[in-house]
Specification:
mainly alpha
Amino acid sequence: MKKCDVFGFILLALGVGVATGILLAPKSGKETRRDLSEKFEKGFEEACDFITYESGRIKSKVTETVDNLRNRFDENQ
């Protein structure tokens, strides 16, 4: 079986599982939508926090690398 076939099958199974879970959920549609909205909002906030943290960390590493390269260049001049 090709890798793309396995990936497609996994996505299909995941979609069927999610749809079945929503259809058979013991909550009303309004409650389910509210819960999904809250979880999406929380996930979005966590993703933003993660991206902010990682971008700061990357910026720090790039600045450190540039400074090191400058120092090496100045030493060789």
